[in-house]
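Reading a protein record of the kind used here takes little practice once its layout is understood. The reader may check this reading against the record printed directly beneath this paragraph.
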Amino acid sequence: MDQQLIRLSYMVTQNNIYKSNLNKVLKTVRGSIKKAIFYLGANMPYDYSSLLITPLVDSLNEIKKNYPDIYYLIEMDCKIRNVDDILDEKLYKKNPLPISKIKEQINNFEKADKKFKEIASLFKLELDLHIKKDHNFENKLRKIIEIRPSDYFLLVDEIINKFGSVLSVEDLHNAKLFFNEFQRLRDLLDDIMTTEEDFVKNSYNNIVIAEKNGLSYKFIDSIINNKFHNLKIYIERIKKHPHKKLLKDTVEFWEKQYFILFKPLLLSYYNDKEEHKKIYFMFKQI
């Protein structure tokens, strides 16, 4: 059984796409298409995302036949999802932790495609957090926060490479900086929102890990505030974008939401777990 876990099949077929968590794969690819169009001006029809609303087998065959570029994205995310599931759902749940097998799984994944290098780096850093407690912990967690949405980064880059963008080269560069930073910010806000659930399920969560390892809430708060600062700089650098005003309004909206809702939830998680449960409940009602 362990050998089966280590051996990866990178020639993704119709069957093993369905063996992976298809709904999650399609949701990620669908989201990547929408993000590429909205943030980076991808020159592709928005309706392409509608092709991926949990298709039947016949529909997936049609996508493979008629939209090979879209099917390529499904294959790519399936490979990422398969490895992620093996690590999180099988190997990391073993006791003692099978460190050599985890490393082999990550190395095989990295060698399969040079485009997986950053995602493999994320897997390696997460393994380090499981097995090492050293003075570099804070820096490692910062790195994880920066590259954690790397599956979206990769898929969106592939979309732009294949379909191009309506933006100028300079605007596309700054729009990509904006998108990457906003995706990191949203991941952190999602972590704040799911602290209680992730703690119970022992799922990866940057807030839970930071608090567990003695980092002050100020560590997370300073990163989030810095990201809002960066987003405002990037949006001003973009000269022409079909959704520039909406991007600016989005940053202002989430900054207000952070101070009204998310920061009190973050503070209560650190300072009073019982109070946190009450605020968390009210938050979920909203």
Summary: The mean pLDDT is 87. Residues 168-286 form one domain. The radius of gyration is 20 Å.
